[in-house]
Amino acid sequence: MSIAIVELEPGGHVIGHRHPFEESYFILEGNPLLAVADKTYALCPHDFGLIPHAAGHAWNNPSGERVRLLRVHAPQPRPIGGRGVWGVFAAEETAVPTQGQRVDELDPAKPYVGHFDQSDMAPPGSISMPGYHGANVQNVQIRMMVDEILGARQHTMFMVQFKQSTTAGPAAKPMGTTAKEHFHPFEEIYYLVSGQTETFSDGEQNVAGVGDLIYTPVGASHGFAPIGTEPVCWIEVQSPLPPASDGFTFHNDWALHTNIG
């Protein structure tokens, strides 16, 4: 996959174009207009969406404020026919939008878009998502955004939040909530939007905070332990789509088995 933070200055726009790969986005700041698949949307912070493979689309920022968004390309762009670098092809039929409708996830006539709200989060619990469910990641909340239901075929994007658990009694204190070390047959990124966490990756230990991005290649071991009392929240992207099962391999699951080579 390819990940970028894209900024669109006031009055800026991107003409109609299409790609030989999927694109998705999460609006961090501002109120851009987007034309995609014969629809035009007036987006706001925490809106997200999918631009399907080869779908014509165009962006506009008619406001007086900067737009910032997290952008995903999956799979990575590459030259085609020995020309170009970014896999951008003209889509003359898609005009730069000058107005748009608000996102409405309940309207079947407005596909490929959604909006994240904290109230969408299920109560904290053990992880349960495509590729894995079990007790190795606990006190986690997940809100799927870009996935197969929205029409994605090459990647997923979702919001993850860890809340600190506490001990019982009058002297209650936070307990470190840890996503135990594991690895996958797909790439992942984590873009932090709140809180701090320790990160563990193939023997390296670091601290990540708001605005940091963590990249995990295929097969790289990684785990997390939130720091402090503020919930840790990140936007996570996986590519390609996780398999229906056996997408997560946790080291501790194999600790009682004899390793013979």
Automatic annotation (TrEMBL):
> Cupin type-2 domain: from which residue to which, for each copy?
5-72, 176-237
Give the matching SUPFAM superfamilies: RmlC-like cupins
* InterPro entries, A to Z: Cupin_2, GPI/OXD, RmlC-like_jellyroll, RmlC_Cupin_sf
Gene Ontology molecular-function annotations:
metal ion binding
Keywords recorded for this protein, A-Z: Metal-binding, Plasmid
The protein in question is named: Cupin type-2 domain-containing protein
Organism of origin: Rhodococcus opacus (Nocardia opaca)
Record flagged with keyword Repeat:
no
